[in-house]
Amino acid sequence: MRSRHADLVGDIGRTQRQQQVLEALKQKLNVGSILANLSQLINDLKGSVYTDLSEQEIVGFAGFGHNLPANAIEHITLGPGSGSQDYGDYGYVYDPSVGAQQSVVIPHCNTIQPVINRVFGLGDAPSCNVTG
User: With 90 as the cut, is the pLDDT of residue 104 above it?
Assistant: First the structure.
């Protein structure tokens, strides 16, 4: 799900795959036997799945995901789109740290800021500032 090199839409495609995986995990967490056997499952996956999360953190996230109502989950990709979901334009910016142009999404603050503020409970705080 994290591959970006073979994806024709780059980070946007990767984001969509990550959202699909998280949605599938949420559905699996609704199966009661998963939570009851999570420690054994984690132990079985050692050596095959690499993460910097501890077993305690994984169990905590699983409990959080299990108790999270499905209607509380939003799929937002802050990139190019249409209408009120047009969050930016593809562009290139020179990155002096690598001495080359980098592909970026240049945000549209007028559509991104209300979303960021709502998701993170920021009220009317300025949360998007693009300078060039």
Answer: no
The amino acid present at 59, given as its one-letter code, is V
Tokens encoding 110: 């007028």
Look up residue 79 and give its two tokens.
Answer: 């990139």
When computed from its CA atoms, the radius of gyration of the chain, rounded to whole angstroms, is 19
Model pTM above 0.70: no
Report strand pairing: 88-95 vs 100-107.
Answer: antiparallel
pLDDT-derived band at 97 (thresholds 50, 70, 90) equals very high
CB atoms within 10 A of CB 31: 11
Q: CA separation (Å) from 106 to 15, 17, 28, 53, 96?
A: 17, 22, 36, 32, 18
